[in-house]
Write a structure and sequence with these properties.
This protein has 13 helices and 5 strands. It has 406 residues and is of the alpha+beta class. The longest helix is centred in the middle third of the chain and has 70 residues, at 147-216. The chain starts with a helix and ends with a helix. 32% of the residues are buried.
């Protein structure tokens, strides 16, 4: 822990202060070796200390000009050897300089520096001689030692690059997670808005239609008025049940039971909500419609609900037909009415906004419903008058009844 704290504090120092400390440490060890006088060799004098001073001053700029500093300290080390002053730590300045070249550079520069340093060191060793007492006695060994600090610096630099790469990868992964979370939140908001739109807007439309029928028949046909008001009550109750089920899902409660999702089996109830609004509805179902995927059934229910709302609110139609047909692994849903082709609904969505590019929430909601189930929706005027909404939804293969028999 003490070493880690010291290293952390050293990392907080300004670059110049750190370089001065390194130069001071190198100067302490190198000066103690330069002051040692061995018999039969040149003693320390002004030239020895001049080379040491030049080396230490150069080390202060090792971060800004590492190659130049390596050249200066290397020349000083070679000068000591050629001048005849020996010592085990006289090459410490050039070792620090070579390490800096590698740790602050790249692999190509490290290789070039190593080749030059090894060649110069070997040439100096050949020039000085092969005396066993002289540290520059074996040229091969003298060619190897400059490679050691370069290799150490290369290892440290590579490790730092890997750590930076790991940190960048972790940061990108965190950003990706945040983007994915934001995307899911947006999708969930759209889904909730679509559910609320389907529940509230469509139910209110049906209740408005039935309330209008009740108001018109209140004095003339009270039994029709009562029937319409009962339908208004049932529509309100159904809306409350669906809202409660939606809120329960949003709360993610495992204790409260949730109501089943609306499906094809409740299309009859859906049609009854719009009866009496001046539109005659015809419902047709063909094929095996039991056991369909819940997502497909919900999509069919909401698409039909949206289309019928459009018919009642915008079309001015007298008749409308709804057909749900299964062909093997495909479900086709069609809603067609006989409203005028020039009606306002022909160019507008369910909320009065224009269809096509930038369609209103109604037509856009139908397309999103179909896309969520893996299908698609097309809509447009019918030749001769009217409007058609057609949706295709993929299904699994139809079960073989013969295989189910024991």
């Amino acid at each position: 822990m003490t070493f880690e704290r010291l290293r952390a504090r050293a990392g907080e120092l300004p670059p110049l202060a750190a370089d001065l400390l390194v130069a001071a440490g190198v100067g302490l060890f190198t000066a103690s070796d330069a002051a040692v006088n061995d018999p039969e060799y040149r003693q320390d004098d002004w030239f020895t200390w001049l080379l040491l001073a030049i080396s230490l001053l150069a080390l202060v700029r090792r971060r800004r000009e590492p190659v130049a500093v390596a050249v200066i300290t290397g020349a000083a080390c070679a000068g000591w050897a050629l001048y005849g002053h020996i010592g085990e730590l006289l090459n410490l300045p050039v070792i620090v300089a070579l390490y800096t070249v590698a740790v602050l550079g790249d692999r190509r520069r490290t290789v070039r520096t190593g080749m030059v340093a090894a060649a110069v060191s070997g040439a100096v060793a050949l020039r000085v001689g092969r005396d066993v007492v002289n540290p520059q006695g074996l040229p091969l060994l003298e060619m190897i030692w400059p490679l050691v600090p370069l290799l150490l610096g290369e290892v440290v630099r590579t490790r730092r690059e890997l750590l930076r790469a790991y940190e960048a990868r972790a940061a990108r992964a965190e950003e990706d997670r945040e983007r994915e979370a934001a995307r899911r939140v947006r999708e969930e908001r759209v889904r909730i808005a679509r559910e609320l739109h389907d529940i509230v807007a469509h139910t209110v439309t049906a209740m408005t239609v039935q309330a209008g029928v009740a108001l018109d028949a209140l004095d003339i046909r009270p039994e029709v008025s009562r029937k319409a008001m009962r339908q208004v009550r049932e529509s309100g109750r159904e809306a409350v049940r669906e809202l409660r089920a939606t809120v329960t899902v949003l709360r993610e409660s495992d204790d409260e039971p949730t109501a089943p999702l609306p499906g094809i089996g409740r299309l009859g109830e859906l049609a009854e909500r719009f009866e009496g609004g001046g539109v005659e509805l015809v419902m047709r179902q063909e094929g095996e419609l039991d056991g369909l995927p819940p997502m497909a059934e919900l999509a069919v229910h909401r698409i039909v609900q949206e289309a019928l709302t459009n018919v009642v609110r915008h079309s001015g139609a007298r008749r409308a037909a709804v057909s749900v047909v299964r062909h093997d692994d495909r479900l086709t849903v069609e809603i067609v009415d006989d409203g005028e082709a020039a009606g306002g609904r022909r160019a507008e969505g369910a909320d009065g906004e224009r269809a096509g590019p930038g369609a209103g929430f109604g037509l856009l909601g139908m397309r999103e419903r179909a896309a969520a189930a893996g299908g698609d929706v097309e809509y447009g005027p019918v030749p001769g008058g009217g409007f058609l909404v057609r949706a295709w939804l993929p299904l699994g293969p139809r079960p073989d009844r013969r295989e189910e028999r024991p």
